[in-house]
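Q: Could you write out the predicted structure for this multi-component system? I'm mainly interested in how the pieces pack against one another.
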Amino acid sequence: MARVFGSSIKRREDPSLITGAGQYTDDLKLPNMAYAAIVRSPHAHARIRSIDTSKATALDGVIAVFTGEDIKKSGTPGVVPVGWLLPDMKIPPHPVLASETARYVGDAVAVVLAEDRYRAQDAVDLVEVDYDPLPVVTNPAKTVEEGAPQLHAEAANNIAFDWELGDKTKTDEAFPKAAHVLKVNIRNNRLIPQAIEPRAALASYDDSKGQLTVWMTSQNPHIHRLLMSLASLGLPEHKIRVIAPEVGGGFGSKIHHYPDEVIACWCSMQLHRPVKWTATRSEANLTDAHGRDHVTEAEMALDENARIVGVRVKTYANMGAYLSTFGPLVPTYLHGTLLSGEYDIPAIYCNVIGTFTNTTPVDACRGAGRPEATFIIERLMDLAAEELGLDPVEIRRRNFISPDAFPYQTQVALQYDSGNYGPALDRALEMVDYKNLRAEQERRRGEGGKLLGVGLSTYIEACGLAPSAVVGSLGAQAGQWESGEVRVHPTGTVTVYTGSSAHGQGHHTTFAQIVADRLGIDPDNVEVIHGDTDKVPFGWGTYGSRSAAVGGSAIAVSTDKVIEKGRQIAAHLLEASEEDVVFEEGKFFVRGAPDKSQTLNDIALQAHLAHNLPPGVEPGLSATSFYDPANFTFPFGTHIAVLEVDPETGEVKLLRYVAVDDVGNVINPMIVDGQIHGGIAHGIAQALWEEAIYDGNGQLLTGELLDYAVPKPHMLVSFELDRTVTPCPHNPLGVKGVGETGTIASPAAVVNAVVDALKSYGIKHLDMPLTPEKIWRAIHQSGRS
Amino acid sequence: MYPAKFEYYRANTLQETIHLLQQHSGAKLLAGGHSLIPIMKLRLAQPPVLIDIGRISELSGVMKTDGRLRIGSLTTHAMLAASEAVKKHCPILAEAAAQIADPAVRNKGTIGGNLAHADPGSDLPAVTLALDGVIHITGPEGDRQVNASDFFLDLLTTDLKPEEVLTAVELPALEERTGSCYLKFEHPASGYAVCGAAAVVALGGDGSCERAGLCFNGVTATPYRASAVTEALAGRNLEDATIDQAVTEHLSIDDPMGDTYASGPYRVELAKVYSKRALKKARDRARS
Ligand SMILES: Cc1cc2nc3c(=O)[nH]c(=O)nc-3n(C[C@H](O)[C@H](O)[C@H](O)COP(=O)(O)OP(=O)(O)OC[C@H]3O[C@@H](n4cnc5c(N)ncnc54)[C@H](O)[C@@H]3O)c2cc1C
């Protein structure tokens, strides 16, 4: 029998989603529901002199208009907290409705409630806010300069934190002695996550029971419940139920705890009516936490044999106007820790300064810190290759951590548990036919015309943040284990409850595969439940490529506990000793005597009837686990981009994209490929198209899909994928994360390819996104056009 | 994303449309809705009244009569791209229509709406201009015709009066030994033209250039006609070098538009490169 684990069964969630039967938050309607619309600051920085709500309140169909003063008067805390603390970090308060100062375009200042959403929007236009505009700063490095506008009294020079990792002295000593030193200044472009479904919340407060139910677009309902209770609403945790119905993508943006969902809840508590708020696309772009936005100075030192002897990185990381939930984590422990890449580097030092600016808060966005780090290290590798006259492949091979060096302790805290980087590189080179490609490139260089570029990214990523005690010591105000409960019903079918909350990843399919494979049953006999704090045990949710490795492992452990209990019961019924009873393909039998067996169904029924159980064994057949991993998992691989640059216009045309990834054991190859495809598309888009651009007044110039370019199929090529398999040694499934690998690896591959194409112009680096005009200007300024 | 309040009327005939326009000042016609509704949702436009002309069948379809094509204003982009008559007699129009956005937009958007809206990034204005199209208009005072060269007045502004309806576009059927080409540099977000070059080349019996047309979308506020270039080509044998030289020496655009994605000078550069390429392709097509 072919194993269920490892087979590309079709996604079980799709029939409902593609026929439109899926229920998203905005599809839900409750009797007597009011619609909320939020009044947002059009200024990036302004004192609020006064807010006149009288005209809006007078409009027909308007139920109420509230401001921050009303929240204060209600006695509700009305703030959103930060969930990761760094040493000496400055934490300015973040009220859900600003009443004194607005600090970015989109900062919420009032909320309108109306009988329908059109009236609500009309009333928004009638709220009169008297603003006194203040000077604005948007650049994460310039904001610390003397004379820059100050955002918060709590944070001198707009510095939230000044963090370091690695051995500074050792690193500084490596540079003067080095044979070669390369330096590059990088602006890692700010991204808007662009989940297809904008954020939404439907809050319903039942005054008679003191019970709040919130349906919301959440990647982690328990975190949202916890923060709603602890920090924002002051309601007891057991009186709040958070439900994530179908969630249409997140890319990180639905991890965070935002003001808007709190506002909806608070309004429902005031009105004693259900209140729905749904972001428009424009609102989503202004208020969903953005990603990246680093200003970095990076250096690499190498010896005469092209071996890296040191890496030094200084980054100004834009936090935006307030600290978002996990904002401080991203440029620090998810970024500095990745700076060793796949390489054996004896000295690394990283300094990150997190700064406030008059922009949308910045937090985790697919990849979160790791794309920034990978970009730095992979750009430096190419610069070094160019400087030393080596092929980019050769310099990488010389510096790879050797396969027998694992577990490998990097200079930046992480201990890589496993890895073997050569085979993935070899396979990718073979797939693109690297030698011939280089020969063709040479030939074309002589001919003029379109320039061929080939770019590599040999990347590592760290995902499934763990273990909890370690992340706690680094500042997490959260654990990083996951819950998984497996309940076998009397008829032998199974329901699985997971704290991991899917929003497009396919948990209903892969988690069922894990259980079905272990129990030897049909995956159709396994149902997966998630996304409801009243149904599933506490869990930390879906982000950081953790679901399979952490959530899936919890389910595997619970399944094994169920099997163990089944074995006890089976041994009793078979009148054998437990050690002699084996479980294969859904049957318990005495080793060597498969004819006389008890099926899982038989055992499930007996467990529930409890007519004849072994002494001391409780009825029922279910198990719950809280799985806390021993370490991160470390996917890795090689990506190669092949493209053409039109020297006359600067246009880039992708020709091929090859990716060989090692994500450990694969539960469902089709779903894994889908994750890789999406990730690569996302990363290519960062390299070529996407950028949130602010003007000098802090206005977001690319706030609509008219200006902000998300990748569309005709802009991409068909990706060529393969994998190597190095199972994760420390989890029961041997799986690693896969949701972010593409986003982490691909920006560097694409930019390396473009810079490679432009070699003859002496161009060393270009900042993303590589728009045609940027390339065209670089060619013209090179003096060799 | 929620438009302001408006009244909605559906017109069944052209006459009824004009009548409704006269009754409701500030009313806007609704054709495919793919330019109007997005700006209403952003509340950049708040017309008090919409008059839906989408179901008036007399305004839709392509007709060929003695050497000319008459294209009803409600003909969709998808119909243009698929029409045998358009592909045969005005292939550049089918070529341009096929490059507009995605199937959803092409199935709803109309040529009349596209020209009436006069978005500088739209694809059909420069094509209409390069073909010396004639715009048919009906208003309370009856019918009138305007040459494309007099129709586009400014950014989002045309010669149409508030109570008039654009009813059709009339284009010459391209003759033997005439080639055309529409080449587009699209904005990666919107898909609109950052620079769209429309080139038409008619060759004489001896293979030299009898007539040429060259116009751009996306570069200036209204579609730009590069007359100096085409004049320089008239009567010449269209070698690559001749085309390159004519463009290099005679294409100068003084008032290009620019934005965060593509500056004015860059758009001018694009116009140069794209016009060379479009002219050469049109010439090759004329020769074959
Ligand atoms: C996502 C997206 C991408 C797009 N990309 C492109 C692109 O790449 N290239 C491109 O060319 N276009 C593009 N468009 C625009 C699209 O082609 C529109 O459909 C077209 O510009 C307008 O035609 P319509 O029929 O939709 O007009 P409507 O939106 O209905 O009307 C537009 C304006 O014209 C007026 N109007 C309409 N018909 C008449 C008439 N017969 N007489 C007088 N006035 C009239 C209306 O009152 C309104 O002011 C895009 C649109 C979208 C939504």
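A: Regarding packing and overall arrangement: The longest strand of chain A covers residues 308-320.
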